[in-house]
Amino acid sequence: MAKKVRNAISPTREENYPIWYQQVIKAADMAENSEVRGCMVIKPWGYTIWENIQKNLDSMFKETGHVNAYFPIFIPKSFFEKEAEHVEGFAKECAVVTHSRLENDGKGGLKPAGELTEELIVRPTSETIIGSSFSKWVNSYRDLPLLINQWANVVRWEMRTRIFLRTTEFLWQEGHTVHATRQEAEDETDLILNLYAEFAEKYMALPVYKGEKTEAERFPGAVKTYCIEAMMQDRKALQAGTSHFLGTNFAKASNIKFQNKAGLEEFAWTTSWGVSTRLIGALIMAHSDDDGLILPPRLTPSHIAIIPIYRNEEEQQQVMEFIHQFQEKIRKIRYHEQKLVVEIDDRELRGGEKVWYWIKKGVPVRLEIGPRDIENNSVFMGRRDFAVKDKFSIDADEFISEVTNILDEIQDNIYNRALKNLHDHTRKIDEQEEFYNYFTPLNKENPEIHGGFALSHWCGSGACEEKIKNDLKVTIRCIPNDAESESGNCICCGKESNSRVVFAKSY
Amino acid sequence: MAKKVRNAISPTREENYPIWYQQVIKAADMAENSEVRGCMVIKPWGYTIWENIQKNLDSMFKETGHVNAYFPIFIPKSFFEKEAEHVEGFAKECAVVTHSRLENDGKGGLKPAGELTEELIVRPTSETIIGSSFSKWVNSYRDLPLLINQWANVVRWEMRTRIFLRTTEFLWQEGHTVHATRQEAEDETDLILNLYAEFAEKYMALPVYKGEKTEAERFPGAVKTYCIEAMMQDRKALQAGTSHFLGTNFAKASNIKFQNKAGLEEFAWTTSWGVSTRLIGALIMAHSDDDGLILPPRLTPSHIAIIPIYRNEEEQQQVMEFIHQFQEKIRKIRYHEQKLVVEIDDRELRGGEKVWYWIKKGVPVRLEIGPRDIENNSVFMGRRDFAVKDKFSIDADEFISEVTNILDEIQDNIYNRALKNLHDHTRKIDEQEEFYNYFTPLNKENPEIHGGFALSHWCGSGACEEKIKNDLKVTIRCIPNDAESESGNCICCGKESNSRVVFAKSY
Fold first, then answer.
1. A77 vs B110: CB contact, 8 Å cut-off?
2. What's the pLDDT score for residue A445?
3. Helices B396-424 and B313-331: crossing angle, nearest 10°?
4. Which of A235, A267, A286, A498 falls 20 to 30 Å from A71 in CA-CA distance?
5. Alpha-carbon Rg for chain B in angstroms
6. CATH number, domain with residue B430
7. Which A residues 62-101 touch B at CB under 8 Å?
8. Which of A32-41, A51-60, A251-260, A436-445 is predicted least confidently?
9. Nearest CA distance, A305 vs chain B (angstrom)
10. Nearest Cα residue to A216 out of A480, A499, A461
11. Do A404 and A492 share a domain, yes or no?
12. Complex ipTM > 0.85
């Protein structure tokens, strides 16, 4: 008789995907909601993932000629008002600083005092404040291109928040570049889009669609917005990075001008681009299972957890000695230009509890090592890409020589799993009825489950886009960069179209 | 006839130290004031120094068992009010968020809207908001010690600001730890003080006094505050890092309790500690000269700048080929666990202009390489710790094999220079008249120049401390940790004292 498998996370993905997501975060001890509305606390396990994302992305930025700088967190209201679409897009969700101190309110408490002559906005994004610096830095074509990145916190007063995915404060990087020609700025936008896609695929093990946003989904003030879109396990799309071609809109708003080679003054062309702590949410939702977090080896805080197994003090001493030596050997191994991180879990807990602890934290490789393993010079290995019970002995020296291959294999396996999810739940749809059925939840108990991504024709009209959004909560995620030219009919109005776009529900 | 030496920075240190400081920053293109009151823009050259500070300090924190996390930027006013001395210390200088959006004001502009039910303070320091998390994280002695660090921006609405040294917004790290016993918390405070001193000496090439602050100079809410104090070239002190033993004050304010081994509930013991972008100001003021910035090799963004010398295209090709190969060789060399950074300056400028450019930026080693050098397989080296004209040829292969030693020698030289400055301008003073003379500027044209640090006896009374502060603008920088017990008389009131303290003017 088949025993019902018990899982570490309840509810399962099937049972309730949104709550499963929260439970995975809790079980892995990654982050929690704070007592400040919509702001999260990123706990060490979650923050180390962010540090690894930063480290790797930062090298990619630097290799492509970008340098980091830091600009003020506050934006004077008047700067913010300079770009009309921009302010329209962000005015409804910004934290406003109006006072510079607190004083006694005469009732034992404190009240704001020192009213500012001009209100300051806590940056929701920095185009306008950085533009103000750039207008001083850029004078001649010799000053261009200017390729700057900033790692910072930003604040957007969102109505509904969800940990990592949409929080009032979040951490991100924002690139801001200035170019002498339209072409160079468009090339930069493209370079970064490809860089983001490469990062998602190589490091996050996350296949993505690259493409352009429709006008309705564009960044406020941009001429074109490009994005990468990934599929989560509930088949919803998650925008994982955006790269904006800003034309001369922000250059005009901030007065970024330069003298060209002919000695004439021109407005410069700018871009901006960013990814945020939302990527951690993407990682969780793309890879984890009903036993908790699954982390790609290239971004995990720890690669290997070692769990000592012993019954008495004598065994403990023998086991710990072996393990410490083994840990030292592993620590010397380089894995993609970093050193392997190995944790020894010597807490006073039962072995089984420790095994589940590391499963829930998503560590790629677990090693249980006891006296019998040591006798055979072997280690008992569990892999997070395999089933929990699917563990096996491996010669200790072989493990040392194979560990980087094993980690690469895990990285590939979880990538391929995510790729399969994307392929299995992406469908070319040409009939409106099929399209509507595809996006209609299968049953009421599980309103989240639906078809997935639809590749369908779209005539280019905002009205059709909006009708679909209103009917189904489905949006155009992007117009794929590599879409083949193919004639067809708009899935909404039936008018002619010459390429398909990606429709999906999204985070 | 001796020619008057012209310097790259005007005024010189002698002529006007505060303006010299600003000019060094400008000439090295490190940072600038922004249009937001008191906030600076940290430009790439300055920011990379901060990145190097972060990278090295962060490893030191991690090696001593600390992990990073991230907490909200906003602190609800009610949290802030929980610790009486703390709020007293910061209420006068905090940015207050009162609204969550902007709406049309009917006059073509925007006004704050969405008034918050509780004001939020932009963190000036995070004891209270982090304490709120810690109170949930800490339940049992098994959860302790809790050793957390955060890299973040903070805001203090300072009246007078000075770039890097005192700005409305600055970047820092703030460590926050929780311990089961008073002793463990005191040990942590001490561990970090020593770590900061080691960092200052090894990386920043900055000798420091380690010691305890007097009650008047303590962090608001702390039981004890320890600090490292360095001497700048104008003989003023700069507090370069603080480590606070908070007792149970903040544990009580935030309700951080744990069950001890005996099963009884106790308040925990906490510490906090931080260094900030102010360290960059310290670097500048401690080492730079009248030709601009001087950077310690262990924190410089670039170790070596190569300046190609040629008269025509043929020479250019030959020189550039040699230089690129040379650069590749240097890049493979490891210098204290990082790779050497070498820049080739191939801008269309005269060689002399480029040489001065890199002098002003403080790069430790400059290499001028032309056809004749290549013929001899040599490079023409200038070192930032030597006089500008003091350049010499060195065999190219010898340079490769010696470069890390050369850099270590430069690091040592600037450390020893700073140490000499400290020794030359520190004096044991036992007579009140001498003390008053020591701190009286030598002449009116140069009001900044005075004696330096005085090691004098102090009776321990706040009244004496205050009188000296009022009379001379001199404060007790610290009661040195390693002060020998020695009987004497208070420099102010003449009462008995058993050890000397460090008196100085300060930033």
1. yes
2. 64
3. 70
4. A267
5. 26
6. 3.30.110.30
7. 67-77, 79-81, 87, 91-101
8. A436-445
9. 17
10. A461
11. no
12. yes
